[in-house]
Structure formats: C-alpha cells, structure tokens
Amino acid sequence: MTDSAPISIEQGLRTDHRDVAAALFWEAFKGKLMPVMKPETKALAFLVSAIDPSHAISAVSGRGELLGIVGFKTTEGGFVGGGLREMTKVYGPVGGFWRGLLLSVLERPVEAGTLLMDGIFVSASARGQGVGTMLLDAVRLKAIDFGLARIRLDVIDSNPRARALYERQGFVALETSETGLFRHVFGFRSSTRMNCQL
C-alpha cells in the first residue's frame, strides 16, 4: 500500500466492502475452514451472506480501500453469523447440515462482562503498518463503550505471530484447549483463550 493519507477506523462495514471483507476473512482463516467449507466459491458465497456489518470495525485507507477488520460477538450476533438456513442455501440440505454440525465445534459462548472478538484480519498489502494494533485499540474502545470489563479472544497454536501481537497489546493467556480428533478436520492442535482486562 502506497497511500500516504491516514488510515481511518470506521464502525461497521461499508456496503461496497462486503465482498472484499468476505475474501479477506477467507484468506485469513481458510487454513482451518477449508476442509469443512470447500469449495472456495461456496465458502465465499456463504460468507458474503453471513457477514453482519453491525459487528465489525473496519480500517480503511485514504483511497477508500478496506485494509482490515476486527469482528466482535455479542448476545445479538457476531461478525460472521448465519445458521443452518444460510448454510443449506449455499451447500444444499445434506452438505449444509454436516458442515453446520462441524463448524458448531468452533463456537464460543458470549460471557457476561466480556466482549468476544470474532476474528481480526489485515490485507496483505497493509501488514506491518500498525493496522492490527489500530483495530485492537478500536475494539478496546468498543468494549469500554459497551460498559464491559474485558475482551476475550482465542488464538490457535499454528498462529504464533498473532499471539505475539495480542500479548504485546496486553492480552494474557488463560487456558489452552486441545482439539483432539478435530485436529484432523481443522488443522490445528490447540486453541488458547486470552483475556485483556480494561
């Protein structure tokens, strides 16, 4: 990215960024989602339909390019929602059913007093420019606006770079859960829960 204009942080997701957001989300998380959500064309179709802009904070360049998103989850929903109906619409009744069952393993409950992060990702062209830190600062302010005491996220063992960023931003590892046999499906062995007190 060569844009010298300042990066802006926006609440929500612009309508014309929806397809780009789905593609960036897929690029960031396809390592663990591909075995369940392939083929890619259907995965992207599902993501475009399941994204909830009201549960997103966007980083946008001076030219209006989407650089990254941090999603969050509340009792009203999450950044990537969608249920069995949306899944079967894209994958059919049988394909949607078994995919929905497997993906439910990754679901995390919303806890009282806690903002649950529902994914953070930055475009390849914007990495190394502090966009991830800006998004984490923004989600921290969002949690404070909601009157919450902490932020929670879960990071997988195959993403040490992300974990290092979270630790630099004040997140502390609380517990690690093994995926067991599901490691053969999702491609990672464990997930660590991290909290940041506000």
Automatic annotation (TrEMBL):
PROSITE patterns: GNAT. The keyword Cytoplasm does not apply. The keyword RNA-binding does not apply. Residues 34-198 form the N-acetyltransferase domain. Keywords: Acyltransferase, Transferase. Gene3D superfamilies: 3.40.630.30. PANTHER family: ACETYLTRANSFERASE, N-ACETYLTRANSFERASE DOMAIN-CONTAINING PROTEIN. This is GNAT family N-acetyltransferase.
